[in-house]
Design goal:
Number of strands of chain B: 12
Structural class of chain B: alpha/beta
Number of helices of chain A: 4
Radius of gyration of chain B: 25 Å
Number of domains of chain A: 1
CATH class of chain A: Mainly Beta
Radius of gyration of chain A: 13 Å
Largest sheet of chain B: 7 strands, mixed
Distance between the termini of chain B: 15 Å
Helix content of chain B: 25-40%
Largest interface: A-B, 10 and 8 residues
CATH superfamily of the largest domain in chain B: Type I PLP-dependent aspartate aminotransferase-like (Major domain)
Distance between the termini of chain A: 14 Å
Shape of chain B: globular
Shape of chain A: globular
CATH topology of the largest domain in chain B: Aspartate Aminotransferase, domain 2
Strand order of the largest sheet of chain B: 1-7-6-5-4-2-3
Helix content of chain A: 10-25%
Strand content of chain B: 5-15%
CATH class of the largest domain in chain B: Alpha Beta
Oligomer: heterodimer
Number of helices of chain B: 16
Strand content of chain A: 25-35%
Chain lengths: 127, 479
């Protein structure tokens, strides 16, 4: 299962990519999408909605279950991947690229507690 | 193949007699905007064609009257035919909910006595028969918890309902619907509620705890009295999810272990049909201090007469009239038929059957919580997954053996979960056939995994594309 280098990861299996100094892109890891199975629906959040670190910001439904997606950062949603509305399978097919979910903006992004790719790879080994 | 596909223009099953009154043109009865512009394309068939179509369709189905149905947490037991005979009696089937009370004393007596029996089984005071399903019972129970805290002036602060991570998904959904915040509590290594984590979680914000006991792992939480004390000391109430009550009839009364509200699924524990549209029935039973909050109406018996009454601080009706009365009659017949000893034997045999099957299967399938189980147990398909065969594949292969698949991928805390509930109404021969099927499948995983991945191959339809069905469902058809 690919753990994309250069991204940061949360314990809830979300990845974070720094887009600019105050904006990050968020998605779920290849490991997470594999565990969920075929994703059939995602409830896309609204732009401008506030998200809080560790709290659920959306729900993904797979053939197995509906699961919360937890925000790895706090801030305001500035972009949503609208392609997922019609093609939720992008999360399965391309979790790190086409399957990104939201972009979050904050002037005080707190990223220091997230894992590096190496740390996350070890973490999922142990789970 | 739909009826529409079988239609032949001009074919007829039934002809209406000629009108013996003058016909009024439809245009005079219905405004033009609401009239169809084209013919309604109903299928045209003869009566025997329609009968054969539906009979054949029913033969493609699997139900408890066709074969073994070990669907975990669903209690798919045999539905005794005597229940149906009694529910069909005209005194029960041909009455109207608006009839005066003095003309339906028998029906009210049945409801009152069923209320008394369920209260005795629950170890609590009074029953509302109104909720139409288990989750409806949950919502009703939670609204009562809310009304109780409101009555005590604590509704503002008591917002949290604590729910174990092994709980049915309906629990957090019901809590949310009732306006509470659902807080998840983790399980301990033995599969019960983590008592220390619970101590840390409760406080003045705690409204209550929802617990299924035995839980969805089929394990009885022996710490229940400690758990009840923690919740009560914090000022909360305990709700018992009765989905698994088939394990405890006549053995443990939830009320005696500290629960304040219990729901029963008459369509599971008390043998009324379900799994094909029901209807269900999810009565709730409450302790003395909650009786005044019950839905409206309840059945009372005073001065030799049965009558309907509104509890003093009632949360109001939760369903039209009295609930699903026909289901109550069937459950009543079941309870009277078995009696107290018979009900206890139901649970003893349900637990015995589950432990028998569990012990025959634990060599071939991983058993994450290796304890004495109650009426059901949860295996994990993780050994098979390592060989490339998923729990879904195993479930599909079981269909080839004429068995309904167990509940799979639930509870969520067990990887590749396979949840089996044999029930008490199955013979040893049926259980042995299931055990053999599961053992054969485990062997096939090692020797012929491709066969399992392409299963089922003996059923009317082969492996369905569930992903496609969920991503692009076709729910309508043009007539």
């Amino acid at each position: 299962m690919e753990v994309r280098k250069g991204l940061l990861y949360s314990k809830d299996h979300e990845w974070v990519q720094e887009v600019s100094e105050s904006v990050v892109r968020v998605g779920i890891s290849a490991y997470a999408q594999d565990q969920l199975g075929d994703i059939v629906y995602i409830e896309l959040p609204e732009i401008d909605a506030e998200v809080a670190k560790g709290e659920s910001f959306t729900v993904v439904e797979s053939v197995k279950a509906a699961s919360d997606v937890f925000s790895p950062v706090s801030g305001k949603i500035v972009a949503v991947n609208e392609k997922l509305e019609d093609s939720p399978e992008l999360i399965n097919e391309s979790p790190y690229d086409e399957g990104w979910i939201i972009e979050v903006k904050s002037d005080e992004l707190e990223l220091s507690d997230l894992m590096t790719a190496e740390e996350y790879a070890r973490y999922i080994e142990e789970v | 193949m739909l009826l529409l596909d079988l239609s032949v223009p001009g074919r007829q099953g039934y002809a209406l007699p000629k009108l013996d009154v003058e016909e009024t043109p439809i245009e005079e009865l219905i405004p033009e905007t609401y009239l169809r512009k084209s013919e309604l394309g109903l299928p045209e068939l003869t009566e025997p064609e329609v009968v054969r179509y539906f009979t054949q369709l029913s033969r493609k189905n699997h139900g408890v009257d066709v074969g073994f149905y070990p669907l975990g947490s669903c209690t798919m037991k045999y539905n005794p035919r005597v229940n149906e005979n009694i529910a069909a009696m005209p005194g029960f089937s041909r009455i109207h909910p608006r009839q005066p009370e003095n003309t339906v004393q028998g029906a009210l007596q049945l409801m009152y006595e069923l209320d008394r029996y369920l209260a005795e089984i629950a170890g609590l005071a009074k029953t509302s028969l109104q909720p139409a399903a288990g989750a409806h019972g949950e919502l009703t129970g939670l609204l009562i918890i809310k009304a109780y805290h409101e009555f005590n002036g604590e509704a503002e602060q008591r917002r949290e309902i604590i729910i174990p991570d092994s709980a049915h998904g309906t629990n957090p959904a019901s809590a949310q619907m009732a306006g509470f915040i659902a807080r998840e509590i983790s399980s301990d290594p033995r599969g019960g509620v983590d008592v220390e984590a619970l101590r840390a979680m409760v406080g003045p914000q705690t409204a209550g705890l929802m617990l299924t006991n035995p839980n969805t792992l089929g394990l009885f939480d022996e710490n229940i009295e400690t758990i009840a004390k923690i919740i009560h000391d914090a000022g909360g109430l305990l709700y018992y999810d009765g989905a698994n009550a088939n394990a405890i009839l006549g053995i443990v009364r939830p009320g005696d272990t500290g629960f304040d509200i219990v729901h029963f699924n008459l369509h599971k524990t008390f043998s009324t049909p379900h799994g094909g549209g029901g209807p269900g029935s999810g009565p709730i039973v409450v302790s003395n201090k909650l009786v005044d909050f019950l839905p409206d109406p309840i059945v009372e018996y005073t001065d030799g007469r049965y009558h309907l009454a509104r509890p003093k601080h009632s949360i109001g009706p939760v369903k039209a009239f009295y609930g699903n009365f026909g289901v109550m009659v069937k459950a009543y017949a079941y309870i009277r038929h078995l009696g107290a000893e018979g009900l206890r034997a139901v649970s003893e045999n349900a637990v015995l059957n589950a432990n028998y099957v569990l012990n025959q299967l634990k060599q071939d399938y991983h058993l994450p919580y290796d304890r004495l189980c109650m009426h059901e147990f949860v295996l994990s398909g993780k050994w098979q997954k390592e060989l490339g065969v998923s729990t879904l594949d195993i479930a599909k292969r079981l269909l080839d053996y004429g068995v309904h698949a167990p509940t799979i991928y639930f509870p969520l805390i067990v990887e590749e979960a396979i949840m089996v509930e044999p029930t008490e109404t199955e013979s040893k021969a049926t259980l042995d056939a299931f055990i053999e099927a599961m053992q054969n499948i485990a062997e096939e995983v090692r020797t012929n995994p491709e066969r399992i991945k392409s299963a089922p191959c003996q059923t009317p339809v082969k492996r369905l594309d569930e992903t496609k069905a969920a991503r692009s469902p076709v729910l309508t058809r043009k007539l």
